[in-house]
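Example record for the data management plan.
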Amino acid sequence: MERIQDMPGVAGVTLLTGASVSPPGDALRIDATNEATLAILTLLDETGAFEKGSVTLSEPTAIVAPQHLKEIDQQGNETAWEEMGEQLRRDTNITPNFLLLMATSGAVAAFGLVSDTLHVVLGAMLIAPGFEPLLRILFGIMGHRHGPGAGLRSSLAGYLAMAAGAAAALPLALLLQDRAAADLPGLHWAGYWSSVQASGVAVSLVAGMAGATIVSARLTVFATGVMVALALVPSMALVGMGLASGNTGLAFGGLLRWGVEVLCVLLAGGTVLAIKRRFLHHRRVFD
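Corresponding structural encoding:
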């Protein structure tokens, strides 16, 4: 406890003697900056504290400690590895809400693609929680053995729901726009998102890096911007629309574009996570 008290960025340490029932023993509350939290977790791992007890991480609204104002004022926003894991689980576990958001995103994208209206497709991108399931695969590879499978299952279930939503919405979208399924390949945005361009790959690589950075800082409000930069939603919507309309060429083009987008996310996002894992979270992690 003395070593923790002396750490820069530790604003307060409270010892609650005998407060813990399971496991039995004392409880320790520590108020610290983000940087100090990472250092404390490393210390707890080195001393074997994780083998005997548990740690709960939470974020206060504010810490008022005038004597530590400099450290508080200059703290960064790098989150603990386990906090990233909790966020990814909460946002990507296969729940009715997750599947419904992915399906409705596909449906909205179908309406936008059939009407050739960009802002509607952008709205569909903002709805879908489609980036984090892919990142969870990589996060799991660098963490524990259950993570990659959970991320893969979430990705498959979510994007299948998206394709199904687009397929279900297609007949109504065609009816409202007075168009036939044969018209789809000739539409501008359908053609754009069913093909692969070098500029699109470059944008997706940068977006993948940005997305991993956003997740590691828990700035999830900005994650929607990553989905707009990526073409994951419209390309998968085109897969569902192409299969539903019998246009296999459109479906294949959409699947190819989606596959390229996924590879960009895995490569760029994985690079960011690997660097952070090596230099910022090099301790033993429990997620």
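Summary line stored alongside the record: The CA atoms of residues 113 and 255 lie 16 Å apart.
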